[in-house]
User: What shape does this take?
Amino acid sequence: MNKLCELGWFEGLYERIYRVLSVDGMLPEPCSVQVIPPEALEVHGVLFSGFVLGVAFKGANTIWFPEQPPPPQAFAHELIHLIEGKDAELEEVYAYNLAALAVLLAERGIVPPANPVKLFNVTPEMVLEAVNSTYGYRFKDLVEYFTFKGVIPGFVDAEQGYKVREGFTSREIAVDAVSELIAIAGGGHDRLALEAIIELLKKAKATSN
Assistant: This one.
């Protein structure tokens, strides 16, 4: 095995992705992360197929990718799995949705004010405040904002007059809204959506202090 910090490809974008996800000390130092060689198709007794883009061994600070360097989003995905203290039920939601954001921030050289995983601790009200602040418009609710953007999140019931679906909790609405906001920002043509995410991270930092 190799230490991440010793690998030749761990520079540039990859190092910046690591910096984004290590904000608030939520990842160990790169020299404390072990990387299993690509040729080790059988890792810790488990044989992986060619469809697996990466594996993280939580608690062991160890990652494996079938190719190195891995795709940037796969790298971010596995690093997020190494972060402790997340909601276990949302583990894959964190890794899938926030990996794209980590790469987006790293590509733009942005070190966020709080770790991206803290975005899933915000409330729908905080999301709406951030959107209204950056867009300079008073959307009455998140449904109006996403309708304006031409997006129908999972929490919106379009068949019943564009309203929040029955049974959705505040946490589910917030997670869904943040995920859609990341997708809008990642589209590359909505600078204000990315600014709203940065604003949300500032709010998340303030509430976690």
